[in-house]
Amino acid sequence: MNLSYWEQKEWLSNIDFTIVGSGIVGLSTAVFLKKRFPKAKILVLEKGILPQGASTKNAGFACFGSLSELLEDLKSHSVDEVLSLLKNRVDGLQLLRQMLGDKALDYKPYGGYELFLEKDQEFFNTCLEKVKEINTLLSPVFKADVFSVVSNKFHFKGIQPQYLFNQFEGQIDTGKMMHALIQKTQNLGISILNSTTVDSFVENTNSVLVKTNHFEFNSSKLIITTNGFTNKLVQQDLKPARAQVLITKPITNLKIKGTFHLDCGYYYFRNIDNRILLGGGRNMDMDVEKTTQFGINPKIKNKLLNDINQFILPKEKFNIEMEWSGIMAFGKNKIPIVRRENQYTAIGVKLGGMGIAIGSLIGKKVSDLLIE
Ligand SMILES: Cc1cc2nc3c(=O)[nH]c(=O)nc-3n(C[C@H](O)[C@H](O)[C@H](O)COP(=O)(O)OP(=O)(O)OC[C@H]3O[C@@H](n4cnc5c(N)ncnc54)[C@H](O)[C@@H]3O)c2cc1C
User: Fold this and answer.
1) pLDDT of residue 189
2) Which end of the chain is more exposed for a tag (fewer CB within 10 A), N or C?
3) Dihedral angle over CA of 224, 229, 235, 239, nearest 10
């Protein structure tokens, strides 16, 4: 790309911080850095026309983990790790709400439900037995019982007659959240350049040489927030994970309200704009879904369609309006990677399915790493 003197001088010279990726983490990082260093020149580079990872593709659950998900986590993490992750989700969500405001997020505190299929009686009983224990475990964080048992008030079919209810769970409008975050970033005087892919970078004595598909430039510091795409730029202990979502056309008199989890969080659905949005099913085809390629897996789509027909809306007539996918990042454990890579480079990635809740906090933490 043949840059003009003006383009070079205004956009690509004397850059203090360059952030790769304009998802929730990248933009939050930019906002926190600007608060700390009001005079800093900050540049965000994004490969997509819009953010093209998970932040504009997700289901908008402002959640802390269903009871079965927490039980699953306790099998592979220590109690302290589970509590620390949970606290990060609570604090991160609070930070996001403070940063953008509930109106901009369209935050709705409808609560969250965990449903259990009729065939999963034993699993349901195990979860029921654990309600008290888990509430006690979480009480230092929430200062109240998180989970309670409620009856099948939305009349789903083929499930256990009771659900577990999480009074603290909410939902947001993902599009509104990201739109507000982009606006906030730009209003602070931070440049976002879209359709710009960072191909590689080299640390020099005093700065980092950043090489993109269009141009090269020097930046004093570099922050990588590329989540599922990170290994294309710098090898990390994570794998990409595709997740897909369907949304119905508006449904007259839709009564379902809240966020709903099934099967340790692998399936989920919610109401939005008189529609049902549902997604998940990655566990059906785990190896195939470890990809950075967007796309629809027909096997998973059929399962989601089957779920909505059989369990969620067995008596309603509905049509699917749209389907899409997004790319997340998972690893051997659920703990995000937030660290300084080199002298001038830091990284904040691997947010799993928790990015709404922890994304802004990870942005804050990674912005702290390069401050001396
Ligand atoms: C279908 C789906 C449903 C989900 N539901 C929920 C939910 O309900 N609740 C929840 O908490 N979480 C949910 N998540 C997870 C959540 O969306 C993610 O954890 C979060 O968005 C991650 O944010 P991020 O900023 O780390 O990554 P991303 O949003 O993926 O941002 C990374 C950005 O980096 C850009 N990029 C990558 N490589 C380069 C490069 N070399 N050069 C320039 N740019 C680059 C990408 O285009 C992307 O925009 C869901 C995810 C999906 C896919």
Assistant:
1) 97
2) C
3) 130
Q: Which two tokens stand for residue 128?
A: 């029921």
Burial class of residue 16, CB neighbours in 10 A (0-12, 13-18, 19+): middle
Q: Ligand 1 within 6 A of 296 CB?
A: no
- Tell me how far apart the alpha carbons of residues 9 and 31 are, in angstroms, rounded to a whole number: 23
Asked if 11 contacts 191 with a C-beta cutoff of 8 angstroms, the reply is yes
pLDDT tens string 39-69:
999 999 999 999 999 999 999 999 988 999 9
DSSP string, 223-253: EE--GGGGGGTS--S-EEEEEEEEEEPP-TT
Angle at the Cα of 165 from the Cα atoms of 159 and 168, rounded to 5 degrees: 150
Q: How many Å lie between the centroid of ligand 1 and the Cα of residue 14?
A: 29
pTM of the predicted model as reported, rounded to 2 decimal places: 0.97
Alpha helices by DSSP H, listed for the chain, are: 5-12, 24-36, 67-76, 79-100, 102-105, 121-142, 174-187, 298-307, 355-369
Task: Indicate if ligand 1 lies below 6 Å from the C-beta of 265.
Answer: no
At 46 the three-state DSSP class reads coil
Q: Which phi and psi angles does 218 have, rounded to 5°?
A: -105, 140
**What is the distance in A from the centroid of ligand 1 to the CA of 211?**
22
Smallest Cα–Cα separation from 242: which of 26, 52, 23, 82?
52
CA distance readout (Å), 277 to 130, 132, 253, 327: 29, 31, 16, 17
Identify any residues that bridge with 136 across adjacent strands, giving them in sequence order.
Answer: none
Residue nearest to atom 13 of ligand 1 (CA): 353
Residues 6+ apart with CB under 8 A from 336: 348, 349, 350, 351, 352, 358, 362
Q: Pairing between strand 239-248 and 320-330?
A: antiparallel
* Backbone angles phi and psi of 335, in degrees to 5: -80, 125
Q: Burial level of 121, CB count in 10 A (0-12/13-18/19+)?
A: exposed
Residue 266: per-residue pLDDT: 85
